[in-house]
């Protein structure tokens, strides 16, 4: 699969207005999204010193192929889970009995006091390659994959597969869909207690305690199309044409541009 | 999740497989049973190995590290999910935000026995995507070795057992015959089958009534969570394994066996733990709606298949 995107920076004072413009353009109400994003890094590849020896049972061609694979790229990848506002600032399920009064959920009378259950959290693995270089097209095009993972704790499986947990953050934003283009107006939130944990959080702090990555509070607008068959030049071209169409429509409000390729480098060094 | 055993009878690339012999022996050993196919089944396994372990050990190095595997398995009798079975990393992953300072040649200092395996189940849509991901983005540590398939398995019911037979064909990198698989599933009454599966929200519905609710379970056993201990499950697995072995012995075939292998039964025990926990705060009165199928069903038999199909070359 390939993802083609255009990006724009949206200052915070323009956010409300742009939301309304997008709602008008797409004829839909924004769909609010909150996502936990866990960053995993592929294990550092072991050095190859002293590993080149003669062998009887391995063809020279195989050896070359293996060496090429060993020197291939390693990547960061994300594991993303959708959460809701009620998941923040809640306590674990075990503490349900002691939670009765004084929590953030207190005003939600009548509804069962929600609690975030890490064991039930659904996840998906989202991989993005570094954007393709030397394309003549003025969109950011990158190889991607997205796959649902089992619920609950993903760290054990990710470790076995070759990935270490590095850190995590939260993305909040609004999603629109227009002419097959997904439009995501979002910003990144950091956890208040920093990132010193070696494991994903079992509980989430109150949403109001989350801090902004970009202190000014500005948003990123990403317009993207996912093309199933990236090798098909025709569909890739059609997708970028759609994106250019949207860029023209939004020109009075924001300027959608191709992103700097190296700023989206996902390779692990 | 029924209790099963898996046997594999290897065969030479150019000779015929043991499939017809097994079928004949099955008929001969159970003359009173009507041995007629009741259905078809299929299996596919893709095996990946750690890329570094594929390099020849050079004279300067001592023993190579234990091989690590990642196995993708799909079974037609568990169509709601695929299985991934992966060797645990031999060396503990280095702490994040810090460059690892392991041995430069990547050989772990200690040579413990083969690392334990981690079982994961994934939705069918993720099966191909994740496989592609690992072969694309993880080349320095995962290398696709081969793909095996049982394209045309046959299912028989023999008394209290269900038997699945099929020839294993290697499709990648070269097409060849590898041998014959026999899965023997116990379908008689079992305590394991009586443990209910948790629903989407983690509740157990009316079945989990910590006593009092008389529910006619399929297995004919009426129990509550308090009646079962984990030791009962172990005993059940051991007892059923001997039944399966007895069945296999009547066929008089030689084969590689996988029944009570590490990890078998762990999902059932986990289910029991959840059930016991839920028993204290039961919410009775909700309809037993069609929830999502148990994502862990079939994990035992998947482990057994992958155990016998973990070929080195």
UniProtKB/TrEMBL annotation, chain A:
GO terms for biological process: regulation of transcription by RNA polymerase II; termination of RNA polymerase II transcription. The keyword Transcription applies. Its main location: nucleus. Component of the Mediator complex, a coactivator involved in the regulated transcription of nearly all RNA polymerase II-dependent genes. Mediator functions as a bridge to convey information from gene-specific regulatory proteins to the basal RNA polymerase II transcription machinery. Mediator is recruited to promoters by direct interactions with regulatory proteins and serves as a scaffold for the assembly of a functional preinitiation complex with RNA polymerase II and the general transcription factors. It comes from the Eukaryota. InterPro entries: Mediator_Med18 (IPR019095). This is Mediator of RNA polymerase II transcription subunit 18. The gene is MED18. GO terms for cellular component: core mediator complex; mediator complex. It is found in: Nucleus. It comes from Penicillium bovifimosum. Pfam families: Med18 (PF09637). Component of the Mediator complex. Transmembrane segments: none annotated.
TrEMBL record, chain B:
Belongs to the Mediator complex subunit 20 family. GO terms for cellular component: mediator complex. The keyword Nucleus applies. It is found in: Nucleus. Component of the Mediator complex, a coactivator involved in the regulated transcription of nearly all RNA polymerase II-dependent genes. Mediator functions as a bridge to convey information from gene-specific regulatory proteins to the basal RNA polymerase II transcription machinery. Mediator is recruited to promoters by direct interactions with regulatory proteins and serves as a scaffold for the assembly of a functional preinitiation complex with RNA polymerase II and the general transcription factors. It comes from the Eukaryota. GO terms for biological process: regulation of transcription by RNA polymerase II. InterPro entries: Mediator_Med20. Keywords: Activator, Nucleus, Transcription, Transcription regulation. GO terms for molecular function: transcription coregulator activity. Transmembrane segments: none annotated. This is Mediator of RNA polymerase II transcription subunit 20. Residues 279-298 are annotated as: Disordered. It holds the Pfam family Med20. Component of the Mediator complex.
